[in-house]
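User: Please predict the structure of the protein below. I'd like the answer in structure-token form so I can feed it into my own downstream comparison script.

Assistant: Understood. Taking the following sequence of 144 residues as input:
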Amino acid sequence: MFRPLVSSAFLASTLALVACSTPRDLDLSLRHPSAQGRYVVQIDPPAAAPAINQLHAWQIRLHRPDGTPVRDARFAVDGGMPQHGHGLPTRPQVTQELADGTYLMEGMKFSMTGWWEIKLAIQAAEGADSVVFNTVVEAPGARR
């Protein structure tokens, strides 16, 4: 009777680890065309990897496909952990345009290590579009 319990516990913990492992082919690039091709979007994380449960700011660079910076854009920020089914622990916002086509996104925070998505809905003169970035938050001292 004890043996099936141990096996069930082992199986459950193994499945949990497999379900939460980061996909090997995950695209971690920081520059993407938007879903409809209206924009090319680059996100720049802070220079130092953000610590868990600490607020940080990112920059967003928004260009037309020909490289022209896009001014006066508006963004809605969303995201979360696809494998855990929860969103970001904060409500990040793009608070200002720092230079032509470069915006400041503040209020980012990751509550745990693992795979996170950062989703941007973009509204500018060229029309509405969206883009999704993947990022992996690792434990302090872990190699990437």
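That's the full token string. Residues 9-18 have pLDDT under 50 and may be disordered.
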